[in-house]
User: What shape does this take?
Amino acid sequence: MERFFSRDARNFRPSAIRAFAKLINDPNIISFAGGVPSPETFPAERIAEIAGQVIREKRSVALQYGPTRGLPRLCDFVAGICRSRGIDCSVDDVLLTTGSQQALDLIAHTLLDPGDVVLVELPTYIGGTSSFYARSATLEGVEQDDDGIVPKSLAEVAARTKPKLLYTIPNFQNPSGRLMTQQRRAEVLRIAAEHDFLVIEDDPYGELVYVREADTLAMKSRDHEDRVIYLGSFSKILAPGLRCGWIVAGAEVLAKLEIAKQAADLCSGMLDQSIVDEFTAAGELPAQIARVRDFYREKRGTMLEALQEHFGARATWTPADGGLFTFVTMRDDIDTAALVPDAVANGVAFIPGAPFFVDGTGRNTMRLTFAKENDERIREGIRRLAAVLRTSVGAASHSDLDSPRVPRAD
Ligand SMILES: Cc1ncc(COP(=O)(O)O)c(C=O)c1O
Assistant: This one.
């Protein structure tokens, strides 16, 4: 069959972390491995009620084909969300998509020729890299530190590789949980202008904030030349099964993306859009977001406390001031993938970090989500993970384990 596959299909890469799906759903295993929101945050009864209502009363919209751009009232609502994130936009600047994952695919399809260079953060979201690989792009990594993308690294890689695009997740990144500072956002845009590449700003986690001082203002709020293509999503604040995301971009790019979307699916699911539209038009989103924040804030606190208690100086981790993840960095010579079998045997699962790094580094890192488990299981899981680390790396002297290697800043 191989001979029938397209060049792009030959470059498809299966998700390196899908293999962990089994572990994530095994009730006997305390799982920090998932990458999905907790079903406990979904307003299921309300969604059921609205679904029944739109199916019965609005069948010619909810069960019919719709405009490729999306339901006009929902597009207008989304433009309002974006304005609240500092972006100067109106309903005409919005294209609704089947989750922001489709947005990534449409952008890759519309902008990338085989061999074009896309810059991605080290580490980055695997769904993003899959979309770029699927168009036979060449991916180059850019260093991050705790303030976000390191400008020196971005400028150096851009000068060397002449990229067409940078893909960035400035707010509580998946997988690192980091928040890029506003100063870094400005520097990233300056470098993008200097080297003339576009920026995809992917922002599904910006509303999931657990601290007061986090500045999540969109990078696109600083964009005055249509250089930034901004992506948002209802997945993490409402429910990912509703597959409702969006793109905000300049008119020329958006018109092309709309044609790409016509070819892909004509329009996103109208039942999904109708449900989200009624929910948002009824003014229910702010209270829902507040509930979601409260739900994760506690769990995040529990995980950070447990890490402090059981990992102490043996690792460093990101503060997870928002989003769903903390990212743990261990001593340079520890390969976290090799710890997985022992961890699973001890009833705890995590995602090793290496698949998130396009340059093959990151073997001493792991991604932990606090979204799935309750406080008690989070504490117990971190305790078990620390014990696995202690025994598996037991060959090394204890004092070695106790001296942390702080990740390099740049
Ligand atoms: C950074 C990032 N972008 C995009 C997505 C896809 O989200 P959606 O459900 O909107 O397609 C995810 C999902 O986890 C994500 O973490």
Summary: The mean pLDDT is 94. The chain has two domains: 2-43+287-392, 44-283.
